[in-house]
Task: inverse folding
């Protein structure tokens, strides 16, 4: 009878196996809280460090509409007149406009610089 060659990677059938624990997931992605914290940290760093260009359409999509909501005048494009855009995003800025108005801080410089900065950060 022929003798078998022993394969060092396969244990004999009668001996207990000692397996190394499997690495299922990376530590960072092991819980939803860690994933959320990682995404939030990335978003904050991205918002603070990335310098973008000014897109005039951003003005019509949020700030001009918010001004109209807060003060009753301003231009609306056809998307707003037809009701195909949501007012949720401009309402955030409209609240800020009203608060600044009540505090007497609604100067043109303050409104354009700070609201434009907040809009470009995605707030």
Result:
């Amino acid at each position: 009878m022929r003798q078998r060659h022993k394969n060092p990677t396969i244990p004999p059938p009668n001996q207990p196996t000692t397996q190394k624990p499997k690495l299922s997931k990376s530590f960072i992605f092991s819980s939803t809280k860690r994933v959320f914290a990682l995404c939030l940290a990335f978003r904050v760093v991205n918002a603070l460090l990335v310098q973008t260009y000014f897109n005039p359409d951003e003005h019509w999509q949020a700030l001009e509409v918010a001004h109209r909501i807060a003060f009753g005048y301003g231009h609306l494009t056809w998307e707003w007149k037809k009701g195909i855009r949501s007012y949720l995003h401009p309402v955030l800025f409209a609240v800020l406009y009203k608060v600044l108005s009540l505090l007497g801080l609604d100067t043109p410089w303050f409104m354009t610089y700070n609201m434009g900065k907040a809009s470009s950060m995605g707030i």
